[in-house]
Amino acid sequence: MTADSPSSLVPPAVARTGLPTVAMIGGGQLARMTHQAAIALGQRLRVLAASVDDPAALVTSDVVLGSHTDLADLRRVANGATVVTFDHEGVPVELLEALVADGVDVAPPPTALIYAQNKSMMRARLAQMGLPIPAFADLDGDDATAVLETFGTQHDWQIVLKAVTGGYDGRGVWMPTDADEARDVLARAQESGTVLVAEQKVAMRRELSAMVARSSFGQGAVWPVVETVQRNGQCAVAIAPAPGLSDHLAQAAEGIALRLAAELGVIGVMAVEMFETLDGELLINELAMRPHNSGHWSMDGAVTSQFEQHLRAVLDYPLGDTRARASVTVMANILGAAQAPEMSMDERLHHLMARMPDAHVHLYAKGERPERKIGHVNIVGDPARPADQAYVAQVRERAERAATWMSTAQWTDGWDPHGESATTTGELA
Ligand code: ADP
Predict the structure, then answer these.
(1) Which residue from 286, 292, 294 has its CB within 8 A of the most atoms of ligand 1, so it is best to mutate?
(2) Which residues are CB-neighbours of 117 under 8 A, at least 6 positions away?
(3) Do residues 390 and 335 share a domain?
(4) Whether residues 375 and 403 fall in one domain
(5) d(CA 412, CA 351)
(6) pTM confidence score
(7) Which structural domain range is residue 384 located in?
(8) In this structure, are 16 and 153 located in the same domain?
(9) How many angstroms is it from 204 CA to the middle of ligand 1?
(10) Ligand 1 centroid to residue 168 C-alpha, Å
């Protein structure tokens, strides 16, 4: 731990190897998995963590303890680092601008990151670029109540209300069932000082995510577009590539991601979350300028993972190959169960490995709390098998069965881990 070491010194690892030090703001699972990629590149990640128990603080020795809203802490973690990047979007832009003024290389720069922090600015910019987004109305002025009435009536009260800043994993998103509930959400938000944006509720076929990387040199690379499945407003499953997506829509989604990365000046990886409407159109929902849950499949299912690619992009290395290794890869999140099972995580892992030797498990060393993302499972399909509907369903069922087992210690197919069949060889995709 170098929590209080004189940060003006060149970190010892850099002095010895000449390889860069990337500093990441935030010590969550995204930083933990970025550190995993940093190791392979001869680096170790420096993290600004809130606690020694944070997922990334547990695995890197280069930890600065502090707050992402404290400029002095940000300066400490930036000092001597080659570049500063993020595992979340919560750092106030004014503080990042101060770091930039200090001469720190911040990637993505605050001029780009602002569009991932502020849903209202993002919508205005996307509209200005002529990109497809759901109809929206800002509810930030004195006339917010009147604007909501007009917008709600226009859309038959089929609307979604979102906090302009600070939301994640569906927190800060409200789906009122009628006009009264919508008015109530706005009133409560106004009382608490939360600014909202109203958006048309989209009748969608499914949700998609286009992950892209862009280096400071300007090189861009995009992974195959994935389908994401949300439960309770947060991503539960990602299927890569999105099954049955037409070439036309895949190219359109990839083109949008590459164009956004270039025009917003993104450096690093970015997820562009989209809706595929019932009419077969794309609408952009959200931007995340960091490694993202919809890219976790790439750790095992793509030639280059999003975490390595993020490092390559922020360090201005040439980008890696983004092709998929198989016709289908499915990622399923391991969420904390409503009640943590009595069986230990270690024993659950043991049983999963016995039953599914091809499952790639990624655990974040987080405590089990209901609905909390504590890990994920990737199942990479057999590269020799085409991704027809039946095979995609089979791989998805296995990934979800594995993740549910890790959450709840229950097999969704009723399999008994201590029964006779438990001793037979494990199944494969
Ligand atoms: P967060 O920033 O918390 O992830 P999002 O804006 O991505 O919030 O919304 C979370 C989820 O809510 C989306 O993944 C989607 O399932 C649903 N949602 C958001 N906006 C809309 C909309 N305009 N129409 C229909 N569903 C929506």
Answers:
(1) 286
(2) 89, 90, 93, 165
(3) yes
(4) yes
(5) 14
(6) 0.94
(7) 204-408
(8) no
(9) 11
(10) 10
